[in-house]
Amino acid sequence: MNFDELNLNDSILKAVSEMGFTEPTPIQGAVIPKLLESQEDVIALAQTGTGKTAAFGLPLINNTDLSDRKTQSVVLCPTRELCLQIHREMSNFAKFTKEIRMTAVYGGSDIGTQIRSLRQGSQIIIATPGRLVDLIKRKVADLSAIKCLVMDEADIMLNMGFRDELDFILSAAPKERQSLLFSATMPREVARIASEYMIKPVEISMGKKNVGTDTIEHYYYLVHAKDRYNALKRLVDFNPGIYGLVFCRTRMDTQVVADRMLKDGYNVDALHGDLSQQQREYVMKKFRDQSLQLLIATDIAARGLDVNNLTHVIHYELPDEVEAYNHRSGRTGRAGRRGTSCAIVNMREKYKIRRIENVLGRKILQAPVPMGPDICEQQLMHLIDRVHTVDVDEEQIAPYVDVIEDKLKDLDRPTLLKHFISMEFNRFLNYYGNAPDLMPVTASDRGGRDRGGRDRGGRDRGGRDRGGRDNGRERFDRKRGGNIRYAHINLNIGHEDRITPPHIIGLINRSTKGAQVPIGRIDIGPTKCSVQVAVDSVSMVEESLKRTPFAGKRLKISVHQESSSPNSSDGNSSGGVRGNDRGHGSERRGSYDKSRYNKSRKPRSDS
Predict the structure, then answer these.
(1) Edge to edge, what strands does the sheet with 557-561 contain?
(2) Structural domains of the chain, with CATH
(3) Within a 13 Å sphere around the CA of 414, how many CA atoms are in the beta-carbon half?
(4) What is the pLDDT of residues 390-443, one digit of tens each?
(5) 135/103 Cα distance (integer angstroms)
(6) Is 223 helix (H, G, I), strand (E, B) or coil?
(7) 426 burial via Cβ count (<10 Å: 0-12, 13-18, 19+)
């Protein structure tokens, strides 16, 4: 199906085509024909980022009587950011519909300007509940002739305490109207609104209620409360190309975290309710333009932030409501892209993860907080990638090449590389060189340790033996049944597809339907990646991956047998498979041993 088949006006189709849209999303394909063909009330359940604005916005514009200046439709939404976003998108849809007038009314802005606009006549009002109630009481907004009332993000409006305002507005609207309710979740209060103010509504649901999208990988990191901020920094440093949202619960926490990260040299800013509208718009513009790498925000402030290419959502603090977790996570993994949702959880909050899993109907994998060596390796590979892919303007640099060569003539190639890496990389080496493991010690960990923090094998809490060698992975493999032989599975996806080690592990877990597949080292290049899988699981993984595309891309798979195991004691291994992996994956970028990310992994202990 394409938009030409939806019986929309030519002027709307022209605008949609100019915006680059050809095929409607599933929610648009289901809702638009229903709203064009009937006056039935509709409840539409779909996740954030699935195109709900066009699903109701295109029919509203299409059905508007352009010869009548009275208000014919009202769109209610929870925040001024979302109000402005909807107004902006609907204005784009109506670009070639000349006689239509739309007004956005919301708090925190000059009410006089909004009053003048409404008095001039506005067929469609996009409003936040509080400001619309104010305008109705002033007898400026007249809902007596409306034919359609849309409640967008109804669950969020109720969570924000707009129940009385919604009741007031719905009571003020004529009973002979079409009511449309759009929501990502269906809590009890939303169901009450539907039963009390809607007439035999048709329910259209994209997927199960309250369930997140399949394009998002979910992980949580268990830490002590005092280590929450350090864990956040490690997650950011471990993902050098991160472009994401960090959610806090309160305005104060949001500003404190943003200030600390700015002081520590990160490219971030804060978004919360204490900012003026001008400040908010300035911050959001910087973030949309990717002038900021991270935006630290509250749940409410981030509503209406329309960015399709976020790589990560980080829950610095878990929300109180499961629905809010779903809304937050839905900010990434949009428009067919993959995304990652990371929650930093302290020991007392762990029960919330189980509650979220029960509602979402999916597992949230526990991952260890990245260790210092892992972060340094990721940063180094990122630096090498940047050098490898940088655009070289021969003409611009030509005048300086001879001078530079003369300056560096006393440095041979290996020495030059060492100087270059040290200059760019010393900060991470110095900071993370002896960084401790942040994962808490659990009761199951304590059973095998003496009072000095060593287990009976003589290892300290960091998983190191008395000689200082890291044996954590070797011990982990022995718990699976001794030495494991691995094979390389090579895939045709890499950094250009925005693939990360957690994505690869999630891909294998999903395709094999939760089988406990031992995974070793993962090497990622620009266009290819290689992952080590236990030999006895290779056939199953290969067949499963053939049926599992990544972001719509069919996977091409090849297998190369490994001659030794990563935990063998022949001296060729150092924590991961290194002794015999040369030549396998010549594009190696961002190599990282991910065996400790497997679901059966027990949490590591404190150092």
Answers:
(1) 557-561, 486-491, 529-534, 519-524, 589-593
(2) 3-205 (3.40.50.300), 216-371 (3.40.50.300), 373-432 (no CATH), 459-597 (3.30.70.330)
(3) 0
(4) 888 888 889 998 998 898 888 888 898 888 888 777 777 778 877 788 878 654
(5) 13
(6) strand
(7) exposed
